[in-house]
């Protein structure tokens, strides 16, 4: 018996590339959400537009705060924006992991608060609330291990500074 339109190789590729996360799609991400809201942060996006100019697919734009944002539907993770960024705050992330700590500030506590309204203060509350141990505070800034993250959202819900964001916008933390 022959199945009309059956292509076994498509089923195999779908299973390997999408379902099993063996080769998950990577996209660029700007690890800053404050940018020009406060010019005291030496680690944040300065809104210079170098990444926007470097992107051949027009996948990056500057938002209302002057911070670069990546359109994950257009991004192919070519790395041109990462090379062009003078602050070095654009990195790859797995597209299917929706929770991202949008901060690159290395200062801690009071100093971080003074530098930016929306910076990570390195308090570690996200680490304590992560059920799978996917978060570490490195250089006073939260970092999520994509391989361990379950995308449960506990980190975003418990972050006192609302640094960890749901990049899909489905969960709005107040």
Explain this structure to me?
There is one protein chain. This protein is α+β, with helices and mostly antiparallel strands and 174 residues long. The protein has one domain (8-166): Alpha-Beta Plaits. Helix content is 22%, strand content 17%. The chain has helices at residues 8-19, 50-54, 80-84, 109-115, 125-129, 154-158; strands at 26-30, 60-62, 68-70, 90-94, 99-101, 135-138, 141-144, 164-166. It has a two-stranded antiparallel sheet. A two-stranded antiparallel sheet has the order 2-3. It is globular and about 40 Å long. The relative contact order is 0.16. Residues 1-19 have low confidence and may be disordered.
Provide the fold topology.
Elements: H1 8-19, E1 26-30, H2 50-54, E2 60-62, E3 68-70, H3 80-84, E4 90-94, E5 99-101, H4 109-115, H5 125-129, E6 135-138, E7 141-144, H6 154-158, E8 164-166
Summarize the structure.
With 174 residues, the chain is an alpha+beta fold. It is built from 6 helices and 8 strands; from the N terminus they run H-E-H-E-E-H-E-E-H-H-E-E-H-E.
Distance between the termini: 58 Å
State the helicity in percent bands: 10-25%
Question: Quick one: overall form?
Answer: globular
Determine the CATH topology.
Alpha-Beta Plaits
Helical stretch tally? 6
Q: Indicate the structural class.
A: alpha+beta
Strand residue content: 15-25%
Q: Unreliable stretches, pLDDT < 50, 5 or more residues?
A: 1-19
Tally of domains: 1
H/E element sequence: HEHEEHEEHHEEHE
Radius of gyration: 18 Å
> Mean of the pLDDT scores?
83
State the strand order across the main sheet: 1-4
Q: Biggest β-sheet, characterized?
A: 2 strands, antiparallel
Write down the CATH class: Alpha Beta
The counted number of beta strands is 8
Can you name the CATH architecture? 2-Layer Sandwich
């Amino acid at each position: 018996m022959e199945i009309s339109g059956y292509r076994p190789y498509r089923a195999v590729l779908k299973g390997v590339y999408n379902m099993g996360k063996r080769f998950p799609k990577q996209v660029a991400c700007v690890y800053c959400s404050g940018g020009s809201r406060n010019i005291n942060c030496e680690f944040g996006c300065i809104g210079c537009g170098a990444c926007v100019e470097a992107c051949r697919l027009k996948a990056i734009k500057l938002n209302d705060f002057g911070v670069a944002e990546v359109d994950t539907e257009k991004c192919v993770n070519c790395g041109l924006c990462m090379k062009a960024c003078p602050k070095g705050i654009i990195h790859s992330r797995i597209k299917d992991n929706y929770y991202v700590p949008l901060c690159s500030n290395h200062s801690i506590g009071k100093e971080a608060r003074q530098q930016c309204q929306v910076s990570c203060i390195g308090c570690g509350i996200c680490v304590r609330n992560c059920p799978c141990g996917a978060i570490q505070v490195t250089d006073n800034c939260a970092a999520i291990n994509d391989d361990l993250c379950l995308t449960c959202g506990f980190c975003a819900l418990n972050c006192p500074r609302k640094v960890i964001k749901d990049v899909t916008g489905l969960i709005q933390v107040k």
